[in-house]
Amino acid sequence: MTTPLRRRQVLGLGFAALGTAVAAPAVWNRLQRSASSLRPATLASRGGVAELELLAQSSRSTIPGGPAELLTYNGRSPGPLLEVKAGDQVRLRLRNGLNQPTNLHFHGLHIPPTGTGDNVFLTVPPGGSTEYAFRLAKDHPAGLFYVHPHQHGLSADQVFGGLGSALVVRGDLDRIPEVAAAHESVLVLKDYASSGGQDAAMGVGRMLGREGRLLTVNGEINPELPIPSGGLLRLRLLNASNARIYRLALEGHPLVLIATDGGAIGTPEPLKELVLAPGERADVLVQGNQTPGSYRLLNLPYRRSGHMGMGAAEERPRTLATLRYAGAVAPLPLPQTLIPVAALPAPERTRRFVLAHAMGMGGMGGMNHAMGGMGGGGMGMGFQINGQAFEPDRINTRVQLGSTEDWLIVNDDVMDHPFHLHVNPFQVITRGGRPESQRRWKDTVLVKAGEEVRLRVTFRDFPGRTVYHCHNLDHEDMGLMGVLQIEERGV
């Protein structure tokens, strides 16, 4: 969700010619050191093949004020940055050093949902390992994606505990000259439980979705984002939190949106603020065209529930990182156009999905585990889609390969729900009956309490079984998920 700038603010940004750096070498060296300290460890493909390995384990925390132990990939939370190219063969071995089962979801990648692809029905037992293997299509969109556990009943615990990694697919967007000229930083936004605190771990806290009090960027508290005067900074933003919804703003600077979940948009869009629900991603450009100094990247207050007393917004903005000017370069321009997003075909049918909570007895799609014993006699609260809580062996929705459908997502609840569809990207057509400002590829969309969102999706390839769900992962574990079967025509 975005808030556009007024027209006169857009006109005031200006476009300058590409130039060369004029900063002194010492300044550039300091900038590079600052940027390197923020960049997470990277595992990258070579020669068209990505041979990667992630070890899930519990590790001692190094975050000041954070919990004593974190769940990590390769000893890090967030885990290492995974970097591949369109067309690459990917082989990723997951080793499970946890005391509970786990698995992986390649959030946003358009790959098979079966076998060793984005198969969330696989389970890796404690002490076990498995290899995920798939090839990205040569025309796979460039973008920022997300790798995280998707073991039903444990997804929220494991993500809230620290598991998750950003994944970058390099391609056409990165070759646009103005984008290529920008300095790039991948920012993984993640909240953690504070030291010695439960951070609403039980009961109502889980029902709302757990938020940690400690806000970090790439596992750091208030890191520095260096930019020279005249420079251009590309911030690649991932909300890797369990339930927190970020409302981002940068003091004194617009955030110029160039890409969403599924890749580039057609035209850059200057924003005053940017809302990112769990699982959502965005690429924004920042121009270093203000008075040199320091400017805060803020998380503004956001209320996740329309019910009084539930999900109340924090009372003040929180600083996530600090943009700091150092040195100068000849002014770098913003791109004027990016990559056009083609309209999808007219839908063959429309489906309606109603998201709601329900009180009832235990046994609703992992509800008892997630509620931590809330209520007596097995009574508790769960969530449902179209009156049904998740059951892994039940097919909720069947679609035909090659078909295009409109899905009307109706939030009949007092809480906001981010809706996520695996494997197949979609376009948001209307929100509350109003058309979207421009076409963009998404795989996660925030549906506010009482709101209706119409999305359009073409199931162009990859038959098999996958899921759709709320990406507030406590809600997912409490039943707010359905099984989707993509079938060959005529089956």
Give your account of this protein's structure:
This protein is mainly beta. It folds into three domains: 8-18 and 174-328, Cupredoxins -  blue copper proteins (Immunoglobulin-like, Sandwich), CATH 2.60.40; 42-170, Immunoglobulin-like (Sandwich); 349-487, Immunoglobulin-like (Sandwich), CATH 2.60.40. Helices cover 9% and strands 41% of the residues. The strands form five sheets. Strands 1, 11, 12, 13, 14, 15, 16, 17, 18, 19 and 20 form an eleven-stranded mixed sheet that branches. A six-stranded mixed sheet has the order 22-21-24-29-26-27. A five-stranded mixed sheet has the order 2-5-10-9-7, with no helix packed on it. The longest helix has 14 residues, at 25-38.
Helix content: under 10%
CATH superfamily of the largest domain: Cupredoxins -  blue copper proteins
| Number of E-state strands | 31
Mean pLDDT: 88
Main sheet specs: 11 strands, mixed
| Low-confidence runs | 2-29, 31-37, 361-379
Strand residue content: 35-45%
Termini gap:
38 Å
Q: How is the CATH topology of the largest domain named? A: Immunoglobulin-like
CATH architecture of the largest domain: Sandwich
Structural class: mainly beta
The 3D shape can be described as globular
Return Rg in Å: 22 Å
For the record, what CATH class of the largest domain applies? Mainly Beta
Kindly give the count of domains.
3
Count of individual helical segments: 7
